[in-house]
Every structure is written in structure tokens, then in C-alpha cells.
Amino acid sequence: MQRVARVRQRQLILVQKYNNSVTHDAGGVEYCQFERFTGNCSDSKVVLVTYAVYGRLRLGRCASTDYGSLGCSTDVTELLDSWCSGHTQCSFDVASLRTVVQPCPTDLTSYLDVSFTCVPGTACELSAISAAHNFAIK
After folding, report:
1. Domain of residue 112, residue span
2. How many domains does the chain have?
3. pLDDT for 125
């Protein structure tokens, strides 16, 4: 829990520091189970994940029927922060999250609700791309 608080505090500081130079704010966009999340920033800016929840939060584009399991979700901000923040682009299949976390009954599809911003910076180096998650970062 302390680690999550430190990540959020770092994110808040970065967002506050660079608030006037933000080039993209996804604003809590839903990505359905069989879609692909892609966060892109210009070469002089890097992705900063500010919010990410995986599950069935509410009825909407990705969850049209309740089935009694609305609200089952888990905060994956720290996970996506480790995957994406500090890179000029980040892309992965939402379904790959199911192999890492499963907040809802297995017979229901979950979706990703994520928000990111672009802040000035130099992209982090990446030693390998995770083929297990069909994951690409630059």
C-alpha cells in the first residue's frame, strides 16, 4: 500500500510540474477486453499513467449488462506505470491483463479504464519486449 502511495505521489508531482505542457490526456478512457491500449507521445515527451483500473466498474460501452458483478475491479495504476510510464509509446492487448490480475468472476469479461498524460522527458531504455503480453514499448 505504501508503494502505491509513493507512485501516486510521484505522479501527482509530475502532473503538477508539467500541467501547462501536457499534450494528451486520455481522461479515463475505456478499453474493452479484446481491444488494444495504445499510449503515444511525441519524441520529446513521455507517457505518464495517472489512473488505471481493470474490471467491471460500471455499465457502459464495454459492460452492457450487470450480471450482479458491477464494481469488481482492481487498481492497476502501479502495474501500468511500470509498463508504460517513461516511454514515448506503450501498447498492449487489454486481454493480457487477465493473466496478471482477475478481479471478477472468470466467466465475465473485464475492461481497462485508463488515463495517461504526456510530460516532457527522455524515453527510458527497454532491454526486452514482453512477448507474453503482446506488448510493445518505445
Report:
1. 2-137
2. 1
3. 55
